[in-house]
Amino acid sequence: MIISLIIPIIMLIILTDGLIKKVPVFSCFTDGAKEGLKTMYSIAPSLIGLITAIGMFKASGALDILTNFLSPVTELMGIPKEVSPLFFLKPISGSGSLAMLNRIVSDNGADSVVSKIAAVMTGSTETTFYCIAVYYGATNIKKTGYTVPCALLGDFASMLTACLIVMRDV
Amino acid sequence: MFNYIWCFIIILSIICSVVTGNTNNLTNSILSSASEAVELIITMTGTVCLWSGITEIADKSGLSRTIAKLLSPLLSRLFPDLDRNGKAFGAISANVTANLLGLGNAATPLGIKAMKEIEKEKALSLKNFTADRDTVMFVILNTTSLQLMPTMIISILESYGSTQPAAIVPYVWISSICGLAVGIISVNIFYKKEV
Description:
By secondary structure, chain A is an all-alpha fold.
């Protein structure tokens, strides 16, 4: 109930605050929206490139090969094999990992440990490559420096924590 | 780095599809995903323009500055080089607030604005267009972002009849915070020599 009201409440606060301080609200809005259009224009090329690559990755069966290749490591750590593809999928595809979460939950039941692990893994990070493509695509920055290694270390840490804390508790 | 990863994903996919005999699927996905991307961009354009407009009002009325002041004790530790009263700092604060509230749609345009402002303030155009510590730190804050209410995940669990779908929330907080901490620490390690 409160969650569904967050967005209207924020709009209400911003608009009344603008009116009180005598800001030309509507022309400000259109100025900002025009900036938004320019932004979308500048990030479109990098999104098309990224989404095509991710689409190819999902269609090629590469995910299964990578998961099988690393399964000895994940098994050693006691991570259920159902959730290990998420380690690869979550950083690159938000819709792909939601689809996988749906499948895991429908196969194993909503109250199973595996489903809980998958849910926590999916909920605790953003889609890293999408973020990087959008944010750098909007600027003129050509070299991303240490962004990718730092982001992937963070993703890996949060997904590993997800596995370990859920397994320990249940 | 992103160059190599992009090529790596495509080349790996082509090789894997030949190995697994999925070449038909691969070709179909090449043909369809570029237009899927455009569909996504069109959907995104609406929300990005809407929130860019709304936040422009908050900028003009001074509301953004108030939020920036509230968050500045925390954020000035993460971004010690940025001017606390500058535009970049304000946009970062607004983006962090939107992320915490779980407003992904609003967080993206604010984040883009923050990136542009950091680029301006740090004059990255004079430094070979290379990302510096502040841009990397900011992107990490977003990739490992903490969301107080992961509504999408809860609704999936709920739709499959979970008895306590919201029970995952504290686990999500703990693992988010771990990821965020590791991200921030690794940025500090990688960029130590420059500070």
